Amino acid sequence: MAGKPVLHYFNARGRMESIRWLLAAAGVEFEEKFIESPDDLDKLKNDGSLMFQQVPMVEIDGMKLVQSRAILNYIATKYNLYGKDMKERVLIDMYAEGIADLLEMIMILPLCPADQKDAKLALIKDRSTNRYLPAFEKVLKSHGQDYLVGNKLSRVDIHLTELLYYVEEVDSSLLANFPLLKALKTKISNLPNVKKFLQPGSQRKPPPDPKKIEEVRKMFKF
Amino acid sequence: MAAKPKLWYFCGRGRMESIRWLLAAAGVEFEEEFIETREHYEKLKKDGCLLFGQVPLVEIDGMMLTQTRAILSYLAAKYNLYGKDLKERVRIDMYTDGILDLMLMIALAAFQPPGEKEEKDAAIVKKAQARYFPVFEKILKDHGEDFLVGNKFSWADVQLLEAILMVEELDAPVLSDFPLLKAFKTRISNIPTIKKFLQPGSQRKPPPDSRYVEVVRTVLQF
What we know:
heterodimer, A: 222 residues, alpha+beta, 9 helices, 4 strands, B: 222 residues, globular, EC 2.5.1.18 (chain A), transferase (chain A)
């Protein structure tokens, strides 16, 4: 009987959070080992555990997986959250890549120099309102179904819901003109596994704390 | 009878080149329409072809696909270059995703100010030699097979060859410490479909020059 997946990352959202969301939504219990010092990271590197010397790394099914996309693809396939055929899969992939692009912008915002922050924030708001949110609202409107692809829950509903929470954290008014996205967010949030993950005390990580980021940057020298 | 896939992009490598490589490796003929003006780009957007307002765009099997990785995954699956099962697929995903990270650095380096480009190129070569090439040298050494995954030609082999050739353009002797990668390069280059793609006159694009950068900047307005 396989053990639980083990996630190796910092005690933060970063590039691991989407993986946490997907595992949680799939009802999969997982363990976490947090990297808290450069020594922790060095140990993983020296063990040969990190293919490209980077985290996220997830131990699952006897493998040490790296590259968040590869990990997400694996989990989605394993837990039947990747559509029923190639055509559904490519739609899921297209949507997921767009979501990942916006997620990335939001994720690295706390790391950008103070003098660039306002411009980056404005860009995030612009991209959300004019590029990404309208695209997904349109998808939902075009088929009138509850889920983005194939009238069935898939990974991309989870990724989008996660993204919508972050967009709201950036600026709660950004979702105002997207009723179908709001409805999707509510529906997915009420799925038992997701509901549980959204409760306090779950493995979901809080928004980045600027002071903590500063400490981590000093410690890891980046 | 299906029409040939059609590619919309600038007349240069950028994010489309990996797609050209994979189609070529699979022996699939494709058409290309080059974007050279802002007007052309705006028309594509207005026609609703671009899900997130971005290229690459590939028309295939009745679908308008965007997002490079979504397109590559679809092609790999369609042309049986994605391994035989989930475990092989996740390895292909890990390898290609890592390589794509490296290749994105190279693609973006073209847009650096002239003074900084040399420095950027040197950093890329260093990263290739320190982080990426050793991994693939070791993989080939450990299993002693001709191809990266499952003893069979896959997307991962195409992606790695493309990356090797691109890094060699920055620094010719970059493979000097990697004998197995040198042999790999020769072997994969001699696969008939790839050999054909490497000939002058194929749809393979040259390294980015200042004209290419100018066109992209003008069309995308940055």
